Amino acid sequence: MGIITKKGIRFCINCGKENVKLLDNRCAHCYIIINPLISKINKNPSIKICKNCFNYYDKHWIKPKSNNFEDLLSEIINSKLNSFISFPKDTNIEFKFNITPELLWTNRCFDLEIIAKRYFPEFDEELTSNLKFSVNVEFSLCNTCLRIKGGSYKAVVNITRKKQFTDDDIDEIFDIIEKDSIKLKLIDKNAFTSKYTIGRNKIKLYLNSEKFARKLSNSIINKFGGIMRESTLRKTKGENRSKKLDKLMISLKLPKFDIGDVVILDDVPHYIKSINRDQFSLLNLDTNKIQKFSMKKESKLLLLRSHEKLDKFIVICKFDDSIQIMDKKKYNIYEILKDQLNTDIENIHELSGFTYDDQIYIVPEFE
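Structure (tokenized):
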């Protein structure tokens, strides 16, 4: 049965609605159904992600701005949206997806909903179109990770220490890696860590940039102190000469002591005030004199107390020439002459120290 309207009245040729604003003889509701704002271009839309480092492919491999998985997918969709759908100018595009990394790795696809909005002056309102489709995910290896897998990384940094790395040590090293990577990535796109291994006394970093390797090594030595050695790993005679396999090898030997530790040198306790690359600054706790000591001779130093295992004392009374302190564990009380102290105690109520040869030693305040 056809739509019957009164003579001379404007109406929608689809639904028959009368006295409404029209475009192509259709009301807003019917117009947007027949002329949706978005249409699918690619029958099988897909994205490619490196399974190793999460770089994604859009004409070339791109390092994502964020390590957050949902932010990564949003960035990829924004980058590839024009290859998925077509839409008119002046159209606002939004999209939604509900996914977890586990679901993505299992199904290798996810549902993407596109919401398009555009203002039509003919209707004096904003119209909306929705489109929902599946996006396939291909997990591959980017060019950099392929080179690394083939053994063609450019630099290796070996970080060794005679004592075991603590969780705090590892966190500090990787904070340095992140900060140096951010500084260099604008001028060196390969300034990132490709892979690494962590052992009890050794951390091994594989890098695809010699400049990044040198910068990073200097930053770690400046923070922890230590000795740096640089060499080049050459290819053997039996290897294919057409393939360059020379690699920069940097060895970092970190000191086995930390700032604030107390060591014995020539039967005298010394406090490590600072470490500057391969030089210790030692405070003689008998003479209050500072001397420089090379890390190359650190085998002559014997650890007496690490800074975290020093005894704690409370200042209970201050006199003109001396102070009284109490051991927080054993509650023993000692009196010490002020000129024997290596720290200013005027505004300090707790001190760190130790007992050696029946003598109480107070060390400077550790920061």
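Helices lie at 28-34, 69-84, 101-107, 143-149, 167-184, 210-224. The longest helix spans residues 167-184.
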